[in-house]
Amino acid sequence: MTVKFTILGFLYYKDMHGYEIITEFNNLVQNQWPLNPGQVYSTLERLERDGLVESLGENNKGRIAYRITEKGKEALSDWITTPIKRPLLREELYMKFLLAGNKQLTGLEELINSQKELIIKQILILTDFKKNIDNKNFKKIIYGGLLHLEADLKWLEYIKEEM
Amino acid sequence: MISVNQLFKHFEQGNQKIEVLKGVDLSIKEGEFIAIMGPSGSGKSTLLQLLGGLDTPSSGQVKIQGKDFSGLTEKQRTIVRRKDIGFIFQNYQLLPTLTVEENIGFPLHADGRKDKNNKEKIINIIKEVGLEGLEKKSPNLLSGGQQQRVSIARGLIHEPKILLADEPTGNLDRKRAEEILDLLSKFNKQRKQSIIMVTHDIFAAGYADKIILFKDGLIEKEVTREDHGYAEYLASFLA
A97 and A155, same structural domain? Predict the structure, then answer.
């Protein structure tokens, strides 16, 4: 879903072929979001079939460029203005905690410790990343990630206190 | 740049002798960003005060650029401190009767020397820490994040080689804390100043090149992100 609309987002500004889209995508996400090139080409075909983009034919290197259609622009605009619903309570970590607590499974303390280690590792990795990139918008994304980690860490500390 | 050799510090309380530092050895290179973490009362802040020459050790040495700090007189220590060391504190420690720019310029005037470049230096650093337009305000009228910016500018105005920071983000929310840490990180990179920061905040410690874990008056371990098992160690230490 995200890949589909990200491609439309690129084509909104400029006609592009698949390879260009892949390069733009990797730059935009600072190589943090693995993208299967095959998925880009198959998505472009689907977008063309659904009338959201149109093919401009092959260039001399055999690459097919695409242009966004009016229908594509509308779909993009709908997507970008629609809020994202995050799962509030449906998380694997919470399920483990509930099972361990309600069903008397052992291993809760080990889970909490190893989860804390993982969060600390992720905090240090994200902070290091934030420190070393210049892209202002991507820094804001990293800040979002750090805020989530802070909330997770607080929750683990709360659980540990209550144990 | 800084070397600490068998540093001991104790305080007398009535008939009791309280040992705060119990033989600390430490070496910090030029341009290094160090975080010191550890439980309250483990001696972190005392170590920072000895590094900055704000207090004297019971025994042992603090050498700054090869000069033995502990062997200097009070007056000589003040000279080294004014030239080579900057401080940032959790509660900012700004003078409420002075304006923002007067607070920032304070270290330049402290030794009575007048320099025609001082004004330019102040204007430049105000720009760098993002306080333009607030120059004439009293620090009391500023937010916590802004006050800490003033404090950073004051700590760096005399271009010290070492910046000592005691819980610089302790009074700030995550957003202001990240802004302050970004600033410190920028100065550390641009000016190659060594930063030694005492903190409880793992997010702040993440900005450092190396984290020193302090316990019962001694360094228990130094860890970097490259060390095997660092996260396990930090997690159990911070538990």
Answer: yes
